[in-house]
Amino acid sequence: MTGANDHEIRALKAALREEALARRDALPAQTRARAADVLAGHADMFPVDATTVVSGFWPIRSEIDPRPLLEALAARGATIVLPAVIDRRTIVFRHYEPDVALLEGSFGTFAPGPDAEPLDPALMLMPLAAFDDAGNRIGYGAGYYDRAIARLHEAGHRPRLVGLAFECQRVAAVPAQPHDVPLDTVLTENGLQEFARRG
Fold first, then answer.
1. Domain locations in the chain?
2. Where does ATP bind (predicted)?
3. Is 144 annotated as a binding residue?
4. Does 61 belong to an annotated binding site?
5. 143 among the known binding-site residues?
6. What digits encode the pLDDT tens for the residues 72-111?
7. What percent of the chain has pLDDT over 90?
8. What is the mean pLDDT of residues 51-58?
9. Do the annotations mark residue 142 as ligand-binding?
10. Is 141 annotated as a binding residue?
11. Hey, which CATH number is domain 6-194, 3.40.50.12280, 3.40.50.10420, 3.40.50.450, 3.10.580.10?
12. 137 marked as binding residue
């Protein structure tokens, strides 16, 4: 969108988000369950060991379910963390242990409580609303992940960014803005797609 102003870009992103989420909402339960299994089957595509911190998420609404994939990565030794909203601008990644109850947070999310250890992930499995073939993503509009990634970069950490989504969330093009951080990889029920590193 060459020459588009910030307001026009935000409006286009909002329209793409709404359309992609409507397609996602319409998926049948069988398709969702099969997709979660496919994601888990790709666990060996991610090099992890006992030193690797992996951030996932607890699915809400019609999000693709990453839990089988997280279980597979944990079985290979990875430490799993989940994002916890701590204020209107910030998420932190807290150590997830299956035998410890999660707390309900903002937007219907679930995460470990404040007693859980905060850890910086080396591999980030991220929810999204829409994505394109260049690795640009549209989130839910609050910017939590963009700010978290910026904080990690400032601290010298460069996590691998993996979007988890259904194929129906793919769009022709996402209008990227300077603050948007592109994905390194997207994983859908059709498999893994790598993007060229930028920046």
1. 6-194
2. 13-17, 137-145
3. yes
4. no
5. yes
6. 999 999 999 999 999 888 999 999 999 999 999 877 889 9
7. 85
8. 97
9. yes
10. yes
11. 3.40.50.10420
12. yes
